[in-house]
Amino acid sequence: MNTDRLIIALAAGVEPVDPSAGRWRLALSTVAGFAAGLPLLLLLLGINPALAQAAVLPMFWVKFAFVAALAVAGWWTVARLSRPGAALGRPAIALAMPVLAMAMLALSALTLAQADQRLALLLGSSWSACPSLIALLSLPAFVLTLWAVKGLAPTRLRLAGAGAGMLAGAIGALVYLLYCPELAPPFLVVWYTLGMLIPAAAGAMVGPRLLRW
Amino acid sequence: MIAAQRGDGVAYAEFLRELSPLLRGFYRRRLFNLQDDIEDLVQETLLAVHNKRHTYDPLQPVTAWLYAIARYKLVDLLRARAGRDALHEPLDESHEDLFADPAPDAEEARRDLGALLQQLPDKQRLPIEYVKLQGLSVREAAQRTGLSESAVKIGVFRGLRVLAQRIRGAR
Q1: Model ipTM value
Q2: Does the beta-carbon distance from A153 to B55 stay under 8 Å?
Q3: 148-177 in chain A: CB under 8 A from chain B
Q4: pLDDT(B46) > 60
Q5: Model confidence over B82-91: pLDDT tens digits?
Q6: Structural domain boundaries of chain B?
Q7: Which of chain B's residues have a Cβ under 8 Å away from the Cβ of A4?
Q8: Of A32, A70, A146, B155, which is the most exposed, with the fewest CB atoms less than 10 Å away?
Q9: What are the structural domain ranges in chain A?
Q10: What class is the B102-170 domain?
């Protein structure tokens, strides 16, 4: 077809679109991903019976802030990756900040602790289960986020897949928070981050295939 | 572009007309030996601009948005090319002796091809028949089969790969 005729065809009856539709779509998938993770948590693990006691400890809220900040930064990164030509610098920094802050807390906790307690701070009582449980709980969010991103226009598919996975991982960790009794910063910075990186790696693998448009 | 998002067709057509030479220049600088593909790519990109116009943020420079899409479509084409060329090469080289044999007549070849194609699932067979044998465009094939355009492209690609493997295995 001739290019001019294509233009006429495209412009004829062009319908208005909402430029913030992308943000809504992504917000919807995020909320739905979290909501869908909850029944999965109740089914598999249940809620931490000591949650009410834990919630009065400042460290519980530091932990919550760590995961929530990663979710917000992840959301921002994915929103940028879904728009062609949008800059990534600041969201990438925002994604690194919570991990750095938690790593510093972890270092100071490890230095202050007795030598024989350091390993316990790092491994807690659930290190071997934590990353895979976070990855498992992030599954609904993973599917929904990829769906949301695919409907927008990612141009760097591997990166967009990884970002979507990272966001899903943070959502999964937010759900897991309701069960997980661990509060030591060394534990959180290693195993929580690892748990979020699993879906991120999976996203990077499937991104180029699933996100094409 | 902002007018286009609001649904102003006249301003939108004007905008797309201004884009075309920009895109033509963009692709001409990057595709030295594929000059034939430039107009296809320009149209492909205009379509993408149209389909993805909701992803343009009015606060963003429109050129950054446009060239990111143009680059994506370029990479997409080159990737498809690379895949197809990789498929051609082994046939050209390793099957030279196949064509050196006393040439089987065209009718027979067509029947063999038909038999081979019958082994493929519809999802791969129909796209190959429409796109490769009847010479329809991907879009037309998509309309006839009811598959999406990308499903047609994938079907052609996978199907050809399976056929190549079968032919190689049969020798």
Answers
A1: 0.79
A2: yes
A3: 152-153, 155
A4: yes
A5: 766 655 544 4
A6: 2-77, 102-170
A7: 17
A8: A32
A9: 40-210
A10: mainly alpha
Q: Quick check: B20 and A16 CB within 8 A? A: no
Q: CB atoms < 10 A from the CB of B19, how many? A: 21
Instruction: Inform me whether the pLDDT recorded for B161 exceeds 80.
Output: no
Are the CB atoms for A172 and A149 separated by under 8 Å?
Answer: no
Distance, in Å, from the CA atom of B5 to the CA atom of A17, rounded to the nearest integer, reads: 5
Does the pTM exceed 0.90? no
Q: What is the CATH number of domain B2-77?
A: 1.10.1740
Average pLDDT over residues A50-56: 84
For A138-148, give one letter per residue: b (16+ CB within 10 A) or e. bbbbbbbbbbb
Instruction: Establish if A4 touches chain B: CB-CB under 8 angstroms.
Output: yes
Query: What φ, ψ does residue B134 adopt, rounded to 5°?
Result: -95, -10
**Residue A10 and residue B55: Cβ atoms within 8 Å?**
no
DSSP code at position B165: H
Residue with tokens 């009856």: A13
pLDDT per position as a tens digit, A105-118? 999 999 998 888 88
Q: Does A15 touch chain B (CB under 8 A)?
A: yes
Confidence of residue B116 (pLDDT cuts 50, 70, 90): confident
